[in-house]
Amino acid sequence: MRYSSVNGKSPAVGFRDALFHGMASDGGLYVPEQIPHLPTPFLDSLSSQSLHTIGRQIVSHFVDDIPAQDLLRLIERAWTFPIPLVKLEENLFLLELFHGPTLAFKDVGARFMAQALSYFLEKEQRHITIAVATSGDTGSAVAHGFYNVPHVDVFVLYPSGRISKLQEQQMTTLGGNIHALEVRGTFDDCQRLVKQALADREVVEARNLTTANSINVGRLIPQIIYYVWAIAQLQSLHGIQTPPTIVVPSGNFGNLTAAAYAQSMGTPIDSFVAATNANDVVPEYLASGTFTPRASVQTYSNAMDVGNPSNLARLQFLYKNHVETMRRDIQAESVTDEETVDEIRTTYERTGTVLDPHTAVGVRAARRIYGSAFPKPVIVAATAHPGKFPEVVQRGLGKQIPLPLALGEAMRKQKQSLFIKPNYRDVKALLLSSRSSSEHSQR
Ligand SMILES: *Cc1c(COP(=O)(O)O)cnc(C)c1O
Question: Angle 314-133-250 (CA atoms, 0-180°, nearest 5)?
Fold first, then answer.
């Protein structure tokens, strides 16, 4: 499989190069040159497959440069946690994507990307350093994904005092090859410092510096797998053969893009609902046919506060820029904060299940479309554990919920971070002076 740029102005590359480059040289996102179709015998036997065998089958269509046995091992190492499809109500299911180490769906992609990078680095006997700026969740998923992964050091830059205590503890208590830099400044300062480092030839060459942002194909491709796995479980565990509608709480629209790829590959999926919070540029685009990016506004489902979603370019590429065709497959709904809190309460009262604010946006969008009973199967991607958002959940339930075990542990650990001024000279000195962790550990 070759990957080309959505802008069409740079040469197509293999998986390895798309993985290492992140973005094409013309500034466009990489997309697979064609979407492969899954073999009929495989689709017919979905209900007897496991998450890992489905994973190998899907990924092998997109990755020619890793042999099949190595792929399976890599997938097994990345996904050491379950991704269950849980029944909420008649015909309403949650695909629980939040059982990874940071309790959000970004673990799924970040851990695969980490394993894939490490695979190539081992083969090439190279070491790289990854720098990421984070406003919260991406940093912890990347930090945990790359924790103890050979040949990689990670520097996470986060704005001091501007992320939640929980998020900070998740990034700063790992140690080892994960280096947390607490920047006295804003998220924009962190992003600027990372960009400056990536543009500095001296640092890039000395450290093999790169980044690991969410547009990387190494994070996108593995997300296709769990939609196929959802259908397998719908058939085997719940005895439903009807192709479902899939609801995806969306911000940057990577998760929905992966779902659309799964459908194009022949997975029996009827249609999609793109559920957004008040950041509704995509619902507006589907309604009007015109895309107008805007500055993002803050909401309770803050991981979806995106005003210029980069993966829309990939969706447009998939639908050949025909908004009418896209509309036939994808319905879009925008949900307010008030409705989000109300949905956390409603679902709890009806089912006893506590939703996180992002998943609640998805469930509310589904209820708006179908009313109080679901005439056909609907699967909502549950993107985070409710325990990560105690304040919003408490607004909905009127009571506190217990902290999940993994978060309680992180809260008790010692924070290890380096406090720095938002000053590139200091960051550069730090990057050039610190030895990589594998150099420490190599005997
Ligand atoms: C990142 C994130 C989303 C949005 O996913 P996209 O792929 O950016 O659309 C939704 N929910 C949670 C909890 C997230 O962390």
Answer: 35
Contact present, 384 and 356 (Cβ < 8 Å): yes
Distance of CA 419 to the CA centre of its chain: 28
pTM: 0.93
Percentage, residues of the chain above pLDDT 90: 82
Q: Where are the beta strands (DSSP E) in 1-127?
A: 3-5, 30-32, 85-89, 92-96
In the β-sheet with 378-382, what is the strand arrangement from edge to edge? 85-89, 92-96, 378-382, 245-249, 271-276, 330-334
Q: What is the pLDDT of residue 436?
A: 63
Q: Each residue of 198-235: pLDDT tens digit?
A: 889 999 999 999 888 778 999 999 999 999 999 999 99
The pLDDT score that the predictor gives to residue 187 is 84
Helix (H, G, I), strand (E, B) or coil at 291: coil
What is the separation, in whole angstroms, between the first and last Cα of the chain? 39
Helix (H, G, I), strand (E, B) or coil at 320: coil
Beta-carbon contacts of residue 133 (< 8 Å; ≥ 6 apart) = 139, 157, 158, 187, 190, 191, 193, 194
- Measure 286 CA to ligand 1 centroid, in angstroms: 20
Ligand 1 binding pocket (C-beta < 6 A) is 104, 106, 137, 249-255, 303-304, 358, 383-384
pLDDT in tens, 77-99: 999 999 999 999 999 999 999 99
Give the number of the atom of ligand 1 that is nearest the alpha carbon of residue 249.
10
* 106 noted as active-site residue: yes
**φ, ψ for residue 141, nearest 5 deg:** -65, -40
d(CA 277, CA 297): 9
The two structure tokens encoding residue 256: 């929905």
Alpha-helical runs (H) found in 216-311: 217-236, 254-264, 281-288
> In whole angstroms, how large is the CA radius of gyration of the chain?
21
State the catalytic residue, choosing from 106, 195, 320, 421.
106
- Rounded CA-CA distance 252/8 in Å is 21
Distance CA 187, CA 193 (A): 10
> Could you give the CA distance from residue 214 to residue 320 in angstroms, rounded to a whole number?
23
